[in-house]
Amino acid sequence: MLKLAGLIPIEIKVHHLPDTQWYHGPIQGIIMSASLSVRKGVSQHPDARIAAGELFAALNQPDIKLAMFYCSPDYDLSALADAMRQQFGNIPLIGCTTAGEITPNGYLSGSLTGFSLASSELDVATDVIPLDKLDSTATGVVVSNLLNSLGDRDGLPASATDTFAYLLLDGLAMQEELVVSVIHHHLHGIELIGGSAADKTNFKATYVYYNGTFQQNIAVLSLIRSNLPFKVFRTQHFVKSDQRMVVTKADPAKRRVYEINGQPAAREYARLIGMGTSTLTPLVFSTYPVVVRVGGQYFVRSIGFVAEDESLQFFCAIDEGLVLTLAKGVDMVVNLNEAFDEVRNEIGTPQLVLGCDCILRRLEVEREGLTEKIGQIFMDNNVIGFATYGEQFNAMHVNQTFTGVAIGTR
Questions:
Q1: Is the CB of residue 407 less than 8 Å from the CB of residue 352?
Q2: What is the rounded average pLDDT for all residues in the chain?
């Protein structure tokens, strides 16, 4: 239990004069409370080995329980993996490739960023889940074993009051729906957030780093237990409209919708938004996503592209018979500020937020010239994370959403 209360968290930013043209701003932030030490860092050096060394210098501290990083796919991943193994040694380290990085310096692209957590009161358990031939039973065993490995605290097992789950997974394995469903079922109420690894906007190869190597077709699940207050949350800057549609033909496994309202999917979607099929671009899809109602809440289901047969490729699985509703956007800056206001009202200024932000949000931020404003909100709330190919929130795989877990202080 925490013995000292009322301490004010202190953040120290160490500034260095740039020694190369690639480095910008502070590489390290240190936040200390009575029971948790958080170190954050970022390197913009394009050389993988130099970047790994700079990140390690920023994150290194005694008794690290977990270190996590997010990297641009532009790095030589083989060289980066080798450098990270050399630098971090036996320190528990996981990470993934991104479509953009959320760093101590705000929103960046082409960088390497991360954080480390150290505390005598922090328990962390991590394991890998293969996705190429997903075994639901074996996945359930992995989750149960992780819970058991955390043991009892004050005679009680890990629960939603002191533990949260964080998931990183291959964003092109297309297994998110089944994975999060199985994991959430075996977590017994413990909340889950996560993100799907990305590779900018290439959609060719995404990687998760585990046990010293970058791998495909895997998910890495971490359970983090602490006496500190935390809040798992999500936000999206879209609200439902009055326009509905019914999916009448689909292949959920391929995330492909062939017909909407009995018509070719792209043609009917274009009609509903008042456009022609030839004008349907990623910009249009990010502006006019659809939402689905689950448990009284609306979750975004984003469209990726139009196929030659006028079907629509989604970023989430879509079942036949599903009722979709066109969504309309609200101010992203206001929406994100409101989300963090709720976090601060509940747990105070967070020491760290593990953030997963959809690539479509990132593209909108860039398109609307909001990179500096959104980046400042992330900096003000100590967010470290990445732009994803999809987000996980408890039992749901979602799109165009920011999911996060904020760790507070006592």
A1: yes
A2: 90
Lowest mean pLDDT among 178-182, 270-274, 285-289, 305-309: 285-289
Distance, in Å, from the CA atom of 97 to the CA atom of 197, rounded to the nearest integer, reads 5
**This prediction's pTM:** 0.88
To which residue do tokens 């605290």 refer? 153
Tell the residue number behind the tokens 């890495």, with chain if given. Answer: 220
DSSP 111: -
Which has more confidence, 10 or 124? 124
Candidates 406, 271, 272; CA nearest to 346 is 406
188 torsion bin: left (phi>0), alpha (psi -120 to 50), beta (else)? left
| Beta strand pairing call for 191-196 and 163-169 | parallel
Structural element, H or E, at residue 266: helix 265-273
How far apart, in whole angstroms, are the C-alpha atoms of residue 364 and residue 356? 15
Q: List pLDDT tens digits, range 259-275.
A: 999 999 999 999 999 99
Q: What residues have CB less than 8 Å from 203, skipping those under 6 apart?
A: 172, 389
Report yes or no: 258 and 311 within 8 Å, Cβ to Cβ: yes
Tokens standing for residue 243 = 């326009």
Return contacts of 147-151, CB within 8 angstroms, 24+ apart.
Answer: 147/186, 147/187, 147/188, 147/190, 147/223, 149/125, 150/123, 150/125, 150/223, 150/225, 151/123
- Report pLDDT for 136: 95
User: Residue 314: beta bridge partners?
Assistant: 303
